[in-house]
Amino acid sequence: MPPASSTHRRTAKAKKVTFEPKVEEHTRSGTRTAPLLTRFLTGIALISAIFLAVYYYYSYLLWEPPSTAKLEEDLLSPFQVVDLPGKGKGVIATRDIAQGELLLREKPLFLVPTHITSSPGALLLTSLARLTPVQRKSFYDLSYVNFPRDVIPDTPEYNEALALAIFQTNSIAAGSNVGIFPRMARFNHGCSSAFNSVYTWREKEGFLVAHALKAIKKGEELLTTYTDTKRPRDSRRRYLHTHYGFTCQCAVCSLPDDLSRKSDSRLSRMSELYSQFARWGDSSISGQEAANIAREIWSIGEEERYWSERGRLAADAAWVAAAHSDDVAAREWAALALEWYAYELGADSEQAHEMQNVIADAEKHPVWGSRHEEHVGGPKKV
Ligand SMILES: [Zn+2]
After folding, report:
1. Has residue 198 been placed in a domain?
2. Residue 79 C-alpha to ligand 1 middle, in angstroms?
3. Is 232 within the bounds of a domain?
4. Residue 51 to residues 18, 44, 45, Cα–Cα distance (Å)
5. Ligand 1 center to 90 CA (angstroms)
6. How remote is the CA of residue 221 from the centroid of ligand 1, in Å?
7. Structural domains in the chain (count)
8. 53 shares its domain with 75
9. Ligand 1 geometric centre to CA of 255 (Å)
10. Where does a domain end: 62, 80, 105?
11. Dihedral angle over CA of 364, 368, 374, 380, nearest 10
12. Which end of the chain is more exposed for a tag (fewer CB within 10 A), N or C?
């Protein structure tokens, strides 16, 4: 609530209180001829009215009402933030959530540029000073790690270090900036097949959206991923421990060693295949080879149940097919990309719209016919 608005509300409410003596005056004049019981009841009613007026007046002064948008957000939200034993806070589905459903749309509390030349702590304190008390509280309520031990409390250095620790633990990339999104920040992490929610920044709209990558049952925890988890368990855990201060115990990290090894080799193979796929860029592999690699990534992803980035993968394959003037393949890959972009980024995302255009007319693809003609093949085998 902006300060100007609060002042306005208080002024408006104060007018009602100054109105009270008039009511009292009127009642007094009425009591002159009233019988004893009526006078007694009127007295009780009067005291109650004064009590209620004073009560509401002070309630109004002390309470900052939530905005309409905030109320709507809470009512419509398919999840709630709860305390989870041993994990701090987390997010639980309050009903069954369908694959691709919008989980949240959130504006940043504030954004800062990715690259700055001034002191990051001071910049954060300036950004925080511009927020309302409620917004500031939502920032300081967030958890943090890697706070320097040698800083003395109640000093400017301490305030800067605290703001920086909270920021570094919770910030999310937003185009060329980095921002704080207090609701999204409550999502815990899961690796590989364990995460079921994906967030993405919408530059044009200026907000973050999160979608359900998989169907989520009521009571299940909503997990996102803090990093690329297509790497072995030890490496993932090391990274997460260093940057976020926890040892990941997600469903994939908790697999028995033999199953964990199988999962690790699938994930490593996927990473390797992605690198091979990228070699089409400098013509090191043919369009057909690139499409074969895309199909293989897809099928290993199916085995691992790693579904993230599928929209992008199919869109890249559509790109390859369009470059080689394979009309059928380009449209088939684009249809697959549209389906998975809709799950991961939303059916209203820019990426989904681009795929609709390719499906409608592959020849309008920006790279159409930019390479030699080749039968690339669609995703049929996937
Ligand atoms: Zn994990």
Report:
1. yes
2. 22
3. no
4. 14, 10, 10
5. 15
6. 14
7. 3
8. no
9. 10
10. 62
11. -50
12. N
Domain membership of residue 204 as a residue range: 70-224
Count CB-CB contacts under 10 A for residue 36. Answer: 7
Residue 382 within a domain: no
Burial of 371 (0-12, 13-18, 19+ CB in 10 A): middle
Entry pTM? 0.79
Regarding whether 280 and 211 lie in a shared domain, the answer is no
Does residue 98 share a domain with residue 193? yes
Are residue 215 and residue 338 in the same domain, yes or no?
A: no
Domain CATH code at residue 209: 2.170.270.10
Cα of 248 vs centre of ligand 1, distance in Å, is 4
* Alpha carbon of 198 to ligand 1 centroid (Å): 16
Whether 49 and 56 have beta carbons less than 8 Å apart is answered as: no
The DSSP code for 115 is S
Tens of pLDDT along the chain (382 residues) come to 233 333 232 223 222 222 222 223 333 333 333 444 445 555 556 566 655 555 555 444 444 445 555 555 666 799 999 999 888 899 999 999 999 999 999 999 999 999 888 889 999 999 999 999 999 999 999 999 989 889 999 999 999 999 999 999 999 999 999 999 999 999 999 999 999 999 999 999 999 999 999 999 999 999 999 999 999 999 999 999 999 999 999 999 999 999 999 999 999 999 999 999 999 999 999 999 999 999 999 999 999 999 999 999 999 999 999 999 999 999 999 999 999 999 999 999 999 999 999 999 999 999 999 999 999 999 985 4
**What is the Å distance from ligand 1's center to 111 Cα?**
28
Q: From the CA of 232, how far away is ligand 1's center (Å)?
A: 10
Q: How far is the CA of 171 from the centre of ligand 1 (A)?
A: 20
**Is 181 inside a domain boundary?**
yes
Same domain, 211 and 86: yes
Same domain, 86 and 201: yes
Q: How far, in Å, is the centroid of ligand 1 from the Cα of 112? A: 29
Residue with tokens 């004049």: 29
194 and 266 in a single domain? The answer is no
**Same-domain check for residues 116 and 197:** yes
Report the number of secondary-structure helices (H) and strands (E) in the chain. Answer: 13, 10
